[in-house]
Amino acid sequence: GALETAREYTRTQARPWTPAGVTQAVEDPYTIRSYGEFGIQLQAADAAAREAAQLLQAAWDKGDALTSQERGELMVQISGVKAIATQAALDVTSRIFEVIGARGTHPKYGFDRFWRNIRTHTLHDPVSYKIAEVGNYVLNQRYPIPGFTS
């Protein structure tokens, strides 16, 4: 994915910024911090997705015994995961250019494909509506209305 490809490029081809006072890009404290932020975001998204998957499996196992409240709680959880994953993916795929440097924007490397692919997928089911579903639950205790995208 984007992070692994950017990491390899940073380790093998990126140049350090002169003010960093280091000889390799992998020693730049801002580059290290950025990769830390990327890793934290992806860990959070992964953990949220795993928790939601367990809840989804439990709901599936209940079958027709699943209550409307349980379904609503699951919908809120999944909407939150969609938002977390979307925000993490968009942030990582746009900010990798900060750590790979200007040379990494050359089309031969194709780093732009990661952002473009994520952006395309996230537009099919807009995250703004998922965030609003979570917000409506948090503020008004109203579950999302079941529909095509929920």
UniProtKB/TrEMBL annotation:
Alphabetized SUPFAM superfamilies for the sequence: Acyl-CoA dehydrogenase C-terminal domain-like
Record has Oxidoreductase as a keyword: yes
Alphabetized InterPro entries for the sequence: Acyl-CoA_DH_C (IPR013107), AcylCo_DH-like_C (IPR036250)
Keywords: Oxidoreductase
Gene Ontology molecular-function annotations: oxidoreductase activity, acting on the CH-CH group of donors
Domain Acyl-CoA dehydrogenase C-terminal: start-end pairs: 1-125
Gene3D superfamilies: Butyryl-CoA Dehydrogenase, subunit A, domain 3
Name of this chain's protein: Dibenzothiophene desulfurization protein C
Native species: Mycobacterium paraffinicum
